[in-house]
Design brief:
8 strands; elongated; two-stranded antiparallel ribbon; 19% strand; two-stranded antiparallel sheet; alpha/beta
Length: 175
Amino acid sequence: SGRMPAMRLRTPDKDISFHDAIQGDYSQNLERDCGDFLVRRSDQAFAYQLAVVVDDALSGVNEIVRGHDILSSTPRQRYLQRLLGFETPAYAHIPLLEDAQGRRLAKRDGDTDLSALSKRFTREDILGMLAYSAGILPENRPVTMEALIGAFDWKNVKTEDMRLPPSFQFAARST
């Protein structure tokens, strides 16, 4: 076809297991559960798995917090870290944020624009609602960032997705 081939990393028949700070113990057999995976795309750009591993390692990242929807990519990254001789960071895969109807909020749908909320609610109102939805606060009340930092504990973070109350609606989604 004239295109450069993509490069894949051959995976072994090996279980990669780790403990996630939120989701608990997780294990995946690389060969059976994901198979060989891309490390360089056909356009010669480095693939996500390799890029994040190298970027995190060279940046000195030792704790990674991200959505639980990509928990399954972590064993591939841990395998790459071992192959490249990098330290393995700690992981915490947090719940996703949903609107009142249970739809996952995503930037691709225009859901990251807080300007509509900031016209109706104070910063402390928004922080309190998010902290309550995540399990960090026992009630939905306004809170400052300073107070929230003092109240934070990983053991209080929920494992299930967080649904926003109907009063916290984002701007209309982009089409």
